[in-house]
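idk why but the lab printer keeps eating my pages so im just putting this in chat instead. protein + zinc ion:
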Amino acid sequence: MAPLPPVRVTSAEAASISESRALRSAQQQVSRIAELRRVHDAFAWFRAHARDLEELQLEVTSIPSPPWGEGARSEWLAQRFTAIGLSDVHRDELGNVLGIRPGVDPSAPFIALSAHIDTVFPAGTPTHVRRDSGKLYGPGVSDNSSGIVALLAMASAIQAVGLANTAPILFIGDVGEEGEGDLRGMRHIYRQPRWSATIASLVVLDGAGSDTIIAEGLGSRRYEIIVRGQGGHSWSDFGVANPIVALARIIDRFTRTPVPVSPKTTFNIGIINGGTSVNSIPESATMRVDTRSASVDELDRLERALHEAVDHVIPEITGRKKQELLTAEVRVIGNRPAADLPTESQLLKMIRAVDAQLENTARIQRASTDANIPLSLGREAIAIGAGGSGGGAHTIHEWYDPSGRDLGLKRILLLTLALSGVADE
Ligand SMILES: [Zn+2]
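predcted complex ->
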């Protein structure tokens, strides 16, 4: 990750700003906001537009948004932001879509709400969407069409009922969250001084549900290992070193590396490729490896183990088959930092207060989301669900059930307003 520009707003400053804004406990602030007439109007807006939100969700799901191919959906979202009436709507050079709901205090740092607009599905995946017995079906319908719909519902309701948010609210639809996108959209936003210096808190809307608070970033590193050789005929060149055999031995050696149960640490060989025909010694073979841990030290240890396996196996094979060399390359193809939101943070207090207000039960969880980026910079961020329920994520059988969406939307709205502040009526 490139060095970041100096940061003007630290999470500690943001916390003290919101603490001095009203010398009340988080719970008192949330209770006051929940009583406001316009907040009730916004809740009524969610109920009145339940069916429209479902239509919107089917519409966005039907626009393909493969990794590095989010253009059409990005354009669609920018049009929605403009139609809702957000200010300064624009798409950046990566296709991230940004729009602002100005605040009563224009000098206050932004409260940002984001939803990733990419899916895991490659270009060409059929995006057939349907409604059946009250549920919505389609690839990405929950992850993350439900988040995009929640983002639009927030912007629409706040605009429609004229809520007087104190701090400006930044709405973000970001690209490149999934898989090898490696959080590139959010990473880019936090590299822009205009945003990195002015976003006090980020609330990431990712997937369905109202029962989790992702306040702990799961770190991951991903690698591609490429082994190359001369290749040849299986009969006439017998004895030439074989990249697939080398890869198999590297896998065998690496996967014997012990990993701790706590901090939970995992590895996976996810893809293996190579060879041209059954009677050819391959010229190359590749594999992709995913490692994850709550601890950076464990990720470092797995990285060393992977290099050790490669460095051990290649000379072992080429040493015996002197006539031909094998070479190996280890490339990092993903690096998501691990970091946690401090338990005393204002953001965590607020979401807890909101859950108490709504009598909602939520557990703190660790996951790899767009929140990893600000968290790794020592900034405040969490990821929460968009309400309702879903299943079959990352498969073409993905579904979303909108019953209970209302609770998720109320939760997001109260949290946003508690963070931004809202004027009394
Ligand atoms: Zn997601």
